[in-house]
């Protein structure tokens, strides 16, 4: 039935993606204001390492040339949040590092404590192919997420041509 519908002239998918990324910013802002994570909450944040505005050490770009996942749980510091990005201090192999990540670079956000997850479309250039990289993780214990499918929001818009 929808095959006869024209492409939308309103970029709904982009608007929804932007709104959901704002959820990540709001959550991180509340954590920054409170001075720490409440209860058992902790976050896995996946982002494109070479997206516009990302500022991470070169050694991390070399190790994760396409995408990496960080964990905000026990050992992080200087979480700063604004309307466009967040920055945080994390340790990788016992080396302290500052990361600056715009929300537009985020491809995933997961809080395993309540099994809440958001997935975002990557804004990749045509012809880009992700390189294989090491499993992403910063220092600290990693909890295993519960896979019951509750509270998962995945946005994947496909336009009919």
Report the β-strand fraction as a percent range: 25-35%
The chain-level structural class is alpha+beta
Low-confidence stretches: 125-133, 142-146, 157-161
Helix content: 10-25%
Number of strands: 8
Under CATH, the homologous superfamily reads SspB-like
User: What Rg is obtained from the alpha carbons, in whole angstroms?
Assistant: 17 Å
Summarize the main sheet: 5 strands, mixed
Average per-residue pLDDT, rounded, comes to: 82
The third-level CATH topology is SH3 type barrels
Please tally the helical runs, counting DSSP H or I stretches of 4 or more residues.
2
Task: Give the tally of structural domains.
Answer: 1
> Order of strands in the sheet with the most strands?
2-1-6-7-8
What is the CATH-assigned architecture?
A: Roll
Order of helices and strands: HEHEEEEEEE
Overall geometric form: globular
CATH class: Mainly Beta
Report the span from N to C terminus.
14 Å
GO molecular function: peptidase activity
Keywords: Hydrolase, Protease
Protein name: ClpXP protease specificity-enhancing factor SspB
GO biological process, one term: proteolysis
